[in-house]
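Please check this record.
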Amino acid sequence: MLPVRIRSFSLLSVMLGLLLVGCGSVKSTTDSTESASVSTSSASELTANEVLILGDISKKPTQKIERYQPLANYLANRLEDVGIKKATVKIAPDLETMETWIESGEVDLYFDSPYPVIVVSTKTGATPILRRWKKGVAEYNSIIFTRNDSDIETIADLQGKQIALESNISTSGYMLPLAYLKEAGLILVEQSLDIEESLDNKSLQVNEVGFIFSGDEDNTVELILTDKVDAGAVDSGTFAELPDDVKSSMKVILETEFVARHIVLASPRLPTEQINAIEALLLDMDKSPEGETTLESFEDTVKFDDFPVEQSIERLKELYDLTF
Protein backbone atom coordinates (compact mmCIF):
# COMPACT_ATOMS: atom_id res chain seq x y z
CA MET A 1 0.00 0.00 0.00
CA LEU A 2 1.31 3.40 -0.94
CA PRO A 3 2.16 5.31 2.24
CA VAL A 4 0.01 8.37 1.62
CA ARG A 5 -3.23 9.71 3.03
CA ILE A 6 -6.01 11.57 1.29
CA ARG A 7 -5.31 15.23 1.77
CA SER A 8 -7.40 18.33 1.18
CA PHE A 9 -9.07 18.40 -2.22
CA SER A 10 -9.08 22.18 -2.51
CA LEU A 11 -7.39 23.02 -5.77
CA LEU A 12 -5.42 26.09 -4.87
CA SER A 13 -5.04 28.15 -1.72
CA VAL A 14 -5.71 31.86 -1.87
CA MET A 15 -2.91 32.50 0.61
CA LEU A 16 0.09 34.54 -0.53
CA GLY A 17 3.21 34.56 1.63
CA LEU A 18 4.73 37.91 2.57
CA LEU A 19 8.40 38.06 1.62
CA LEU A 20 10.09 41.28 0.58
CA VAL A 21 13.86 41.65 0.35
CA GLY A 22 15.52 45.01 -0.22
CA CYS A 23 13.63 47.56 -2.28
CA GLY A 24 10.40 46.40 -3.96
CA SER A 25 9.72 46.53 -7.66
CA VAL A 26 8.07 49.64 -8.98
CA LYS A 27 5.77 47.42 -11.05
CA SER A 28 3.98 46.23 -7.92
CA THR A 29 4.36 46.01 -4.17
CA THR A 30 2.07 42.98 -3.96
CA ASP A 31 2.83 40.26 -1.38
CA SER A 32 4.90 37.23 -2.43
CA THR A 33 7.56 39.31 -4.14
CA GLU A 34 11.32 39.34 -3.66
CA SER A 35 13.95 41.52 -5.35
CA ALA A 36 17.47 41.13 -6.64
CA SER A 37 19.34 44.31 -7.56
CA VAL A 38 22.60 45.13 -9.30
CA SER A 39 22.08 48.86 -9.09
CA THR A 40 22.42 51.45 -6.36
CA SER A 41 19.36 53.21 -7.75
CA SER A 42 16.38 53.33 -5.44
CA ALA A 43 13.18 51.54 -6.47
CA SER A 44 11.43 54.86 -7.06
CA GLU A 45 14.01 55.73 -9.73
CA LEU A 46 13.44 52.56 -11.76
CA THR A 47 11.02 52.31 -14.67
CA ALA A 48 8.93 49.24 -15.48
CA ASN A 49 11.34 48.05 -18.18
CA GLU A 50 14.26 48.22 -15.73
CA VAL A 51 12.67 45.61 -13.44
CA LEU A 52 12.38 41.98 -14.56
CA ILE A 53 9.73 39.93 -12.76
CA LEU A 54 9.71 36.13 -12.77
CA GLY A 55 6.45 34.42 -11.90
CA ASP A 56 4.86 31.09 -11.06
CA ILE A 57 1.73 29.73 -9.37
CA SER A 58 1.90 27.98 -6.01
CA LYS A 59 0.10 27.48 -2.72
CA LYS A 60 3.55 27.61 -1.08
CA PRO A 61 4.83 31.03 -2.23
CA THR A 62 7.71 31.37 0.23
CA GLN A 63 9.19 28.02 -0.81
CA LYS A 64 8.74 28.87 -4.49
CA ILE A 65 10.42 32.26 -4.12
CA GLU A 66 13.45 30.62 -2.50
CA ARG A 67 13.80 28.35 -5.53
CA TYR A 68 13.36 31.13 -8.09
CA GLN A 69 15.48 33.84 -6.48
CA PRO A 70 18.91 32.50 -7.59
CA LEU A 71 17.72 32.61 -11.21
CA ALA A 72 16.42 36.16 -10.71
CA ASN A 73 19.81 37.16 -9.29
CA TYR A 74 21.64 35.50 -12.18
CA LEU A 75 19.58 37.35 -14.80
CA ALA A 76 19.69 40.71 -13.01
CA ASN A 77 23.49 40.56 -12.89
CA ARG A 78 23.76 40.09 -16.66
CA LEU A 79 21.06 42.21 -18.27
CA GLU A 80 22.22 45.76 -17.61
CA ASP A 81 23.11 46.13 -21.30
CA VAL A 82 19.41 45.93 -22.15
CA GLY A 83 18.35 48.21 -19.30
CA ILE A 84 17.40 45.71 -16.61
CA LYS A 85 18.67 46.74 -13.17
CA LYS A 86 16.57 44.68 -10.79
CA ALA A 87 14.89 41.25 -10.77
CA THR A 88 12.02 40.10 -8.59
CA VAL A 89 10.01 36.93 -8.03
CA LYS A 90 6.25 37.02 -7.76
CA ILE A 91 4.04 34.03 -6.95
CA ALA A 92 0.34 33.95 -7.85
CA PRO A 93 -2.25 32.00 -5.86
CA ASP A 94 -4.11 30.86 -8.98
CA LEU A 95 -4.15 30.89 -12.77
CA GLU A 96 -6.57 33.80 -13.03
CA THR A 97 -4.22 36.02 -11.02
CA MET A 98 -1.29 35.04 -13.24
CA GLU A 99 -3.30 35.94 -16.34
CA THR A 100 -3.94 39.40 -14.89
CA TRP A 101 -0.29 39.90 -13.93
CA ILE A 102 1.01 38.83 -17.34
CA GLU A 103 -1.46 41.04 -19.17
CA SER A 104 -0.71 44.08 -16.99
CA GLY A 105 3.06 43.60 -17.10
CA GLU A 106 3.33 42.72 -13.40
CA VAL A 107 5.03 39.46 -14.44
CA ASP A 108 7.48 39.29 -17.36
CA LEU A 109 8.50 35.63 -17.44
CA TYR A 110 6.18 32.79 -16.44
CA PHE A 111 7.42 29.21 -16.05
CA ASP A 112 4.92 26.34 -16.10
CA SER A 113 3.76 23.15 -17.79
CA PRO A 114 2.06 23.37 -21.20
CA TYR A 115 -1.60 23.54 -20.18
CA PRO A 116 -1.48 26.63 -17.93
CA VAL A 117 1.00 28.22 -20.34
CA ILE A 118 -1.41 27.76 -23.25
CA VAL A 119 -4.29 29.13 -21.16
CA VAL A 120 -2.32 32.27 -20.26
CA SER A 121 -0.86 32.67 -23.75
CA THR A 122 -4.28 32.38 -25.40
CA LYS A 123 -5.87 34.94 -23.08
CA THR A 124 -3.01 37.47 -22.91
CA GLY A 125 -1.01 37.19 -26.13
CA ALA A 126 2.14 36.19 -24.23
CA THR A 127 4.77 34.30 -26.25
CA PRO A 128 6.25 30.84 -25.49
CA ILE A 129 10.01 31.18 -26.04
CA LEU A 130 11.94 28.23 -24.61
CA ARG A 131 11.61 24.78 -23.11
CA ARG A 132 12.81 24.16 -19.57
CA TRP A 133 14.28 20.80 -18.56
CA LYS A 134 12.72 20.76 -15.10
CA LYS A 135 14.29 18.10 -12.87
CA GLY A 136 16.25 16.94 -15.90
CA VAL A 137 13.13 16.09 -17.90
CA ALA A 138 12.63 17.54 -21.39
CA GLU A 139 9.20 16.04 -22.05
CA TYR A 140 6.62 13.86 -20.37
CA ASN A 141 3.24 12.28 -20.93
CA SER A 142 0.20 10.97 -19.07
CA ILE A 143 -0.49 7.43 -17.96
CA ILE A 144 -4.10 6.32 -17.51
CA PHE A 145 -4.22 3.22 -15.35
CA THR A 146 -6.45 1.02 -13.21
CA ARG A 147 -6.13 -1.97 -10.89
CA ASN A 148 -5.04 -5.34 -12.22
CA ASP A 149 -8.26 -6.94 -11.00
CA SER A 150 -10.39 -4.46 -12.95
CA ASP A 151 -12.27 -5.50 -16.10
CA ILE A 152 -11.22 -2.21 -17.73
CA GLU A 153 -8.81 -2.89 -20.62
CA THR A 154 -9.08 0.24 -22.79
CA ILE A 155 -10.37 3.77 -22.32
CA ALA A 156 -13.58 2.72 -24.10
CA ASP A 157 -14.27 0.53 -21.07
CA LEU A 158 -14.39 3.65 -18.87
CA GLN A 159 -18.00 4.28 -19.95
CA GLY A 160 -20.08 4.43 -16.81
CA LYS A 161 -16.94 4.46 -14.65
CA GLN A 162 -15.06 7.11 -12.67
CA ILE A 163 -11.56 8.47 -13.09
CA ALA A 164 -9.44 10.60 -10.75
CA LEU A 165 -7.66 13.62 -12.26
CA GLU A 166 -5.25 15.89 -10.41
CA SER A 167 -6.50 19.47 -10.89
CA ASN A 168 -7.95 21.65 -13.61
CA ILE A 169 -4.63 23.40 -14.31
CA SER A 170 -2.56 20.23 -14.65
CA THR A 171 -1.14 19.19 -18.02
CA SER A 172 -0.53 15.51 -17.25
CA GLY A 173 -3.31 15.19 -14.70
CA TYR A 174 -6.04 17.00 -16.62
CA MET A 175 -5.48 18.32 -20.16
CA LEU A 176 -3.86 15.23 -21.71
CA PRO A 177 -6.16 12.54 -20.25
CA LEU A 178 -9.25 14.69 -20.73
CA ALA A 179 -8.37 15.40 -24.38
CA TYR A 180 -7.74 11.73 -25.14
CA LEU A 181 -10.99 10.64 -23.51
CA LYS A 182 -12.93 13.23 -25.48
CA GLU A 183 -11.17 12.29 -28.72
CA ALA A 184 -12.43 8.74 -28.06
CA GLY A 185 -16.00 10.05 -28.02
CA LEU A 186 -16.50 9.91 -24.27
CA ILE A 187 -18.42 12.58 -22.35
CA LEU A 188 -16.77 13.78 -19.13
CA VAL A 189 -19.01 14.58 -16.15
CA GLU A 190 -17.49 16.23 -13.08
CA GLN A 191 -18.51 14.67 -9.78
CA SER A 192 -17.80 15.32 -6.12
CA LEU A 193 -16.25 12.72 -3.83
CA ASP A 194 -16.91 11.85 -0.22
CA ILE A 195 -13.61 10.24 0.76
CA GLU A 196 -15.47 7.84 3.06
CA GLU A 197 -17.49 6.41 0.18
CA SER A 198 -16.96 5.34 -3.40
CA LEU A 199 -18.48 7.38 -6.20
CA ASP A 200 -21.97 6.53 -7.36
CA ASN A 201 -21.87 5.64 -11.05
CA LYS A 202 -25.58 4.90 -11.37
CA SER A 203 -26.33 8.41 -12.62
CA LEU A 204 -23.89 8.16 -15.55
CA GLN A 205 -25.35 7.77 -19.03
CA VAL A 206 -23.99 5.85 -22.03
CA ASN A 207 -20.60 7.23 -23.14
CA GLU A 208 -20.24 9.23 -19.92
CA VAL A 209 -17.22 9.04 -17.63
CA GLY A 210 -17.36 10.59 -14.17
CA PHE A 211 -14.28 12.44 -12.96
CA ILE A 212 -13.18 13.99 -9.69
CA PHE A 213 -10.18 16.11 -8.76
CA SER A 214 -7.85 14.33 -6.36
CA GLY A 215 -5.60 17.30 -5.57
CA ASP A 216 -2.31 15.55 -6.37
CA GLU A 217 -0.76 12.39 -7.84
CA ASP A 218 -0.43 10.56 -4.51
CA ASN A 219 -4.12 11.02 -3.84
CA THR A 220 -4.95 9.72 -7.32
CA VAL A 221 -3.02 6.50 -6.68
CA GLU A 222 -4.52 6.12 -3.21
CA LEU A 223 -8.06 6.52 -4.55
CA ILE A 224 -7.48 3.67 -7.00
CA LEU A 225 -5.83 1.43 -4.41
CA THR A 226 -8.72 1.92 -1.99
CA ASP A 227 -11.32 1.29 -4.71
CA LYS A 228 -12.79 4.79 -4.46
CA VAL A 229 -12.46 5.30 -8.25
CA ASP A 230 -12.00 2.96 -11.21
CA ALA A 231 -9.03 4.63 -12.89
CA GLY A 232 -6.65 7.56 -12.62
CA ALA A 233 -4.19 9.65 -14.60
CA VAL A 234 -0.70 10.72 -13.51
CA ASP A 235 2.44 11.83 -15.31
CA SER A 236 4.86 9.19 -16.57
CA GLY A 237 7.55 10.13 -14.05
CA THR A 238 5.22 9.67 -11.09
CA PHE A 239 4.04 6.30 -12.37
CA ALA A 240 7.61 5.10 -12.95
CA GLU A 241 8.56 5.99 -9.37
CA LEU A 242 5.72 4.07 -7.73
CA PRO A 243 6.89 1.33 -5.35
CA ASP A 244 7.23 -2.01 -7.15
CA ASP A 245 4.43 -3.65 -5.18
CA VAL A 246 2.05 -0.80 -6.02
CA LYS A 247 3.03 -0.68 -9.67
CA SER A 248 2.62 -4.45 -10.03
CA SER A 249 -0.97 -4.14 -8.78
CA MET A 250 -1.81 -1.69 -11.58
CA LYS A 251 -2.27 -1.96 -15.33
CA VAL A 252 -1.84 0.80 -17.90
CA ILE A 253 -4.72 1.26 -20.33
CA LEU A 254 -3.40 4.32 -22.20
CA GLU A 255 -0.23 6.37 -22.64
CA THR A 256 -0.66 9.79 -24.24
CA GLU A 257 1.75 11.58 -26.53
CA PHE A 258 4.73 13.40 -25.03
CA VAL A 259 4.73 17.18 -24.51
CA ALA A 260 7.30 19.66 -23.20
CA ARG A 261 7.85 19.35 -19.45
CA HIS A 262 7.97 23.12 -18.86
CA ILE A 263 7.76 26.21 -21.05
CA VAL A 264 9.00 29.76 -20.56
CA LEU A 265 6.36 32.37 -21.43
CA ALA A 266 7.27 36.01 -22.12
CA SER A 267 4.83 38.84 -21.40
CA PRO A 268 3.58 40.80 -24.44
CA ARG A 269 4.78 43.95 -22.63
CA LEU A 270 8.41 42.78 -22.51
CA PRO A 271 10.52 44.57 -25.20
CA THR A 272 11.89 42.35 -27.98
CA GLU A 273 15.47 43.41 -27.18
CA GLN A 274 15.08 42.18 -23.62
CA ILE A 275 13.40 38.92 -24.69
CA ASN A 276 16.29 38.18 -27.06
CA ALA A 277 18.88 38.89 -24.35
CA ILE A 278 17.02 36.73 -21.82
CA GLU A 279 16.76 33.86 -24.31
CA ALA A 280 20.50 34.00 -25.02
CA LEU A 281 21.34 33.98 -21.30
CA LEU A 282 19.04 31.08 -20.50
CA LEU A 283 20.31 29.00 -23.42
CA ASP A 284 23.93 29.42 -22.28
CA MET A 285 23.42 28.80 -18.56
CA ASP A 286 24.38 25.12 -18.65
CA LYS A 287 27.72 25.99 -20.27
CA SER A 288 29.29 27.65 -17.21
CA PRO A 289 29.86 26.48 -13.61
CA GLU A 290 27.93 29.42 -12.14
CA GLY A 291 25.09 28.86 -14.58
CA GLU A 292 24.93 25.15 -13.77
CA THR A 293 24.84 25.88 -10.04
CA THR A 294 22.01 28.36 -10.53
CA LEU A 295 20.08 25.89 -12.67
CA GLU A 296 20.44 23.19 -10.04
CA SER A 297 19.01 25.48 -7.37
CA PHE A 298 16.12 26.24 -9.73
CA GLU A 299 14.28 22.98 -9.00
CA ASP A 300 17.06 20.83 -10.49
CA THR A 301 16.74 22.35 -13.94
CA VAL A 302 19.33 20.87 -16.34
CA LYS A 303 19.06 23.47 -19.09
CA PHE A 304 16.83 25.57 -21.31
CA ASP A 305 16.64 24.83 -25.02
CA ASP A 306 14.86 25.73 -28.23
CA PHE A 307 12.20 23.33 -29.40
CA PRO A 308 9.78 23.35 -32.36
CA VAL A 309 7.73 26.07 -30.70
CA GLU A 310 5.21 26.73 -33.47
CA GLN A 311 4.52 23.05 -34.20
CA SER A 312 4.36 22.10 -30.51
CA ILE A 313 2.15 25.02 -29.54
CA GLU A 314 -0.32 24.31 -32.34
CA ARG A 315 -0.76 20.73 -31.14
CA LEU A 316 -1.06 21.89 -27.54
CA LYS A 317 -3.79 24.31 -28.62
CA GLU A 318 -5.65 21.42 -30.26
CA LEU A 319 -5.48 19.46 -27.01
CA TYR A 320 -6.45 22.56 -25.02
CA ASP A 321 -9.55 23.10 -27.19
CA LEU A 322 -10.68 19.56 -26.42
CA THR A 323 -10.89 20.35 -22.70
CA PHE A 324 -13.99 22.51 -23.22
The chain has ten helices and 15 strands. Residues 129 and 264 are 6 Å apart (CA to CA). The chain has two domains: 48-138+261-308, 139-259. The first strand starts at residue 33 and ends at 37.
